Amino acid sequence: MDDLPPEPTPNNEFYDGNIPSITQTDQIASRQRSQNARALQEEEYDTNHRRRGMAIILNHENFELMSKREGTNRDRDAATAVLTSMQFDVRVYNDLGRDELFCVLLALASEDHSDCDCLLVTS
Predict the structure, then answer these.
(1) Threshold 0.90, pTM exceeds
(2) 16 to 22, 44, 114: CA distances (angstroms)
(3) What is the Cα–Cα distance from 93 to 57, expressed in whole angstroms?
(4) Mean pLDDT for the chain?
(5) 8 occurs within a structural domain
(6) Considering its fold, how many domains does the chain have in total?
(7) Where is this region: Disordered (predicted)?
């Protein structure tokens, strides 16, 4: 969690030289949507990429106005084990706040997933 993207700048852009600006992210997302549209026209889902893909696990145990969610760490660990055995690159984020979650998802959206079979995000 120490590698979270920076806080938004006053004009709500995220940029520190490592993370594309929102405009750049929109351009990347547009290209990915075009690729996804082509994939939807195929009869079979292509699983012959170089990598299986990334699996993002958002684990929420503690809440401000609710009681602690018991058992969530056991679920997280089980999901991590299964997804790792399926050759996913697993990333786990625990108890992210709204702004932290937005930064993680924005950074994830800016990454190149073109050599992956899929992207999985679960909570």
Answers:
(1) no
(2) 12, 39, 24
(3) 6
(4) 79
(5) no
(6) 1
(7) 1-20, 26-47
